[in-house]
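pls ignore typos typing on phone
zinc ion + seq
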Amino acid sequence: MQRRCVVRQINDHIYLLDDDKQATGYLVIGKNKAAVIDTMNGVEDLYAIVRELTDKELIVINTHGHPDHIMGNIFFDKAYLHPADFELAKQFCSDPSFIERCKNWNLKMPAFEPMSAGDIFDLGGLTLEVYECPGHTSGSVLLLLKEDRILFTGDAINHHIWLQLEDCSPLPEIVNTLQSLLFLEEKADYVLHGHTWDKEDIGIMRAMMNGIQEVIDGKTTDDVKYEWFGSDDAVMHVYQIDDGRTYLQEHHAVIYKRSQDKRV
Ligand SMILES: [Zn+2]
Ligand SMILES: [Zn+2]
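k done
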């Protein structure tokens, strides 16, 4: 049977897991343990796919509680999630079609283990540090792979950032949060986010923050209606990358709600 999930090697111990171009997870293999960062939609047996790549003890870490990142948790015994997203995740897990799918697999969602800022996952020779980055969801986290200077960001820092959803934080709050995390530019060279095919320069964090600030400042004359998901009044604001570095995406965009209160 043709698999949905395409595995792509990033370096000798990181694999990108692409779930039918709908979501991206990662496998990071240390000397003692391996981390699965996001498990995607849970439509095929991710445990079996991961086991073809490593026999190390596994730790599952969710960058946030959205279904395209956590549904594959059902193939594992335990998964970490920031408690601020527990309720959100619970809502998605009570979706009848998901319950039906679990029944067919004879599997269930494991209980979430809490994690928070400052937590460290020691994989043996590789360390993942947890940073909180509320915005896209309240419990979104960034994971810094210190030795490789790579930041796993899920949807919290993403070339196409969704801030139009019901649970997203107000835009000024998100800018403040990103501002407080800019020191990570000194610790990471690249971002691997939750809907991608390759690394992006760490400069995306600052560029995205500036893009959100442009929306707050009302520089929105070129913004267009965003039809795809989330809200009737969702709008897309394309921002420019102007630091001279090369990016993979043709354009970067902030999706937000036209009606959202953008005052500080
Ligand atoms: Zn998300
Ligand atoms: Zn996502």
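The mean pLDDT is 92. The longest helix spans residues 203-216. more later
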